[in-house]
Design a protein that fits this description.
globular, 5 helices, mainly alpha, 434 Repressor (Amino-terminal Domain), single chain
Length: about 90
């Protein structure tokens, strides 16, 4: 029987990552396998789930790798790096 995913607020950074993953049609297990193949280790579906739920914060390296796997456009990448605290918003004079 298929599991129903827990509702995750798409307005949160983790929710935005989940939306990107679902748009790619990937399960957490598939992302974990791709992550491990690219990095050589560390693809834990449980950790990825906790990031999506806002219970864990990804390292910048993990975030960048996930954004690459999800083929996120440059604006989405920048926006999520800001939301997770790794980039600064643009300041206009």
């Amino acid at each position: 029987m298929p599991r129903n995913p827990k509702p995750i607020d798409p307005a949160t950074p983790g929710g935005q990552l989940r939306e990107l993953r679902l748009r790619c049609g990937l399960s957490l297990g598939e992302v974990a396998a791709q992550y491990s193949a690219l990095k050589g280790s560390g693809g834990d579906p449980g950790h990825l789930s906790r990031i999506e739920q806002g219970k864990d914060v990804p390292t910048k390296e993990t975030l960048d790798l996930l954004l690459s796997i999800y083929r996120a456009n440059p604006f989405a990448q920048w926006q999520l790096r800001i939301r997770f605290g790794y980039d600064e918003p643009l300041r206009l004079p």
